[in-house]
Description:
Bound molecules: cobalamin
Oligomer: heterodimer
Radius of gyration of chain A: 21 Å
Strand content of chain A: 5-15%
Largest sheet of chain A: 7 strands, parallel
Number of domains of chain B: 2
Amino acid sequence: MTSRERVQLVLQHKEPDRMPLDLGASPVTGMQVDTVYNLRQALHLDPPGTPVKVVEPYQMLGEIKSDLMAVLGVDVVGLSQRATQFGFKNEGWKPWTTFQGTPVLVPAGFNTEPDANGDILMYPEGDKSVPPSGRMPKGGFYFDSIVRQPPIDDSALNVEDNLEEFGPVAADALNYLSREAERLYSETDKAILGNFGGTGFGDIALVPAPWLKHPKGIRDVEEWYVSTLTRRDYVYKIFERQCEIGIKNLEEVFAVVGNRVTVCYVSGTDFGQQNGPFISVKTYRDLFKPFHREINNWIHRKTQWKSFIHSCGSVRALLPDFIDAGFDIVNPVQCSAAGMAPEELKKEFGDRVTFWGGGVDTQRTLPFGTPDEVRKEVCERLRIFGQSGGYVFNTTHNVQARVPVENVVAMYETVRQCGRYPLAGRPA
Amino acid sequence: MSQFEEMQQAIIDGKAPVVKELTEQALRDGVKPAEFFPKAIVPAMNEVGRRMRDCEFFIPEVLIAARAARAATDILRPLLVGDEASRSAGTVVCCTVKGDLHDIGKNIVAMMLESAGFRIVDLGVDASPEKIVQAVQEHKANLVAMSALLTTTMVNMKAGIAALASAGLRDHVKIMVGGAPVTENWARSIGADGYGKDAPTAVDLARSLVAN
Ligand code: B12
């Protein structure tokens, strides 16, 4: 059975030979570069000191190369645009060292500057003549956006200001996607997850637009949340235009990648916090759902893609609406947040949605537990989520830095051992 | 509706300009600055806290209400002079710890504490232990509130506490911690004085810590 078939079967809620596994196919299912390095070393894939590529500079995610995929049994690959969160392309690699001392390779545009505190500043498109848009705190593991909020004059707000990043997809980007899709489809047997961008509404990680040199409109995090109530019409109009552009772009992308792609990453907006949803169900229905539905309807009418939504935190209250809006896959399934117990989620929603993630608690067990605790939890999660398909193994969000490598190894060993169908110990 | 009731409603509804106007009007009518807290701001924010807990209010609603409360406290703070100021509930140094840039929760906690009558020294995000020590000394704070949202940065709370101890300040301040991955157990294990799971709890906790 190929990886692609395996993923397709679970998406149809059927049981293949084993549970499929994703690592690194999307910007929310990967692994921080220091951890990738440690894992490669532990698995003896590289001689000591061999650098790992940083494929996503904002979160500092490391490359999951085909040798690592083969060892772990990864079933999904990502198809992404070449431009990174900081606007430069993933090309022209040069050496760099993280604060943890890990040797890495970064793209040519990864031009940094230390500030007075020893933090590292990063520039949009690598252009040091404009103000920096990212900062890695001294000793830190990843960048965060530097909010560049021009003064807001409500009478002069223009939706175009918040739409600068949502233009038509460029011809060279389409060429690239076309070639890459063909390459991944013919050279690997993996399912392809398309990260095409542009269809996530109000994603707070993207609102500050660290890739733009001079972002306009509303770019401050708190101001954005406040605006979803106080400037609802403005936000609604942004979404309306963004949705139009997004669908047009999906049409063009589909024309070149076709059904070689299995899964489309539609939304990465975080709707959950630790104890409950970020916004009310009503706000979701009024402001977000109509656009999610429109995108998903297009996907389901025109393609065989499955639609993927990522939302951290406690989203139990919103799940029925996510499903109703047409999402087929939910990630990262943060079981450590309120109301997100695996048994309940699987029981209540398992026949209607594929859970992609939630394989281990990345807030407690993976970073702080023992390898035995990791094994026990992973095995339990697989047993619960894996019933009747509808499950792709991944951690809860990217595997972070400072995670003991023994725990990471124990996790993947357990997936191999406990992830086989038919599942052990279930009622006949 | 009385002046104070009207103001409470305007805070809950997040109408900052109305709150500002009502505050100015009441001051002209001779209301003492310190009176606003027990009669309008604290009860309003208690109600916001209740709605937050009961899932009637979500992040945007809470932020807007907190901003409205701030419209009043911004006017009132400078007017609280002499012993009225020293009778403020206490001075809290608030921050998100070193390496962490999640600040939505910290901001809500700070705004709630402020409207409960505490004086807030907000160090923002990515606050180093040295910065915390310096702020406690400079502002003679009696409380430190640290927030962390990442497992990779929670440990920096411990560093903050250690720095306060080595500066000889540990006995002068109470330390409270919170943020998504933080638990009661963690708080205890690093030697903090209290843990709060949400902003309303943070206010209760701060009150009880300064009372002891
Ligand atoms: C919004 C968000 C972001 C935003 C932050 C914007 C901002 N300016 O704050 C963005 C998109 C930028 C972001 C970035 C990242 N994030 Co983030 N993020 C979240 C999310 C979805 C919600 C956090 C939030 O704002 N909640 C709302 C507020 C109101 O809640 P709160 O902070 O918990 O605060 C409340 C209580 O905890 C308490 N409280 C808070 N502080 C204090 C202090 C005291 C003293 C007291 C008493 C109480 C208290 O009161 C508050 C109000 O009730 C969480 C999910 C989650 N489960 O929490 C992930 C989450 C925290 N992020 C996570 C990660 C991994 C990241 C990144 C590393 C990216 C990545 N994916 O690799 C980066 C790192 C950025 C950095 N360098 O810090 C992970 C952390 C996992 C881990 N192992 O720890 C989480 C848990 C998501 C997940 N599914 O795993 N994130």
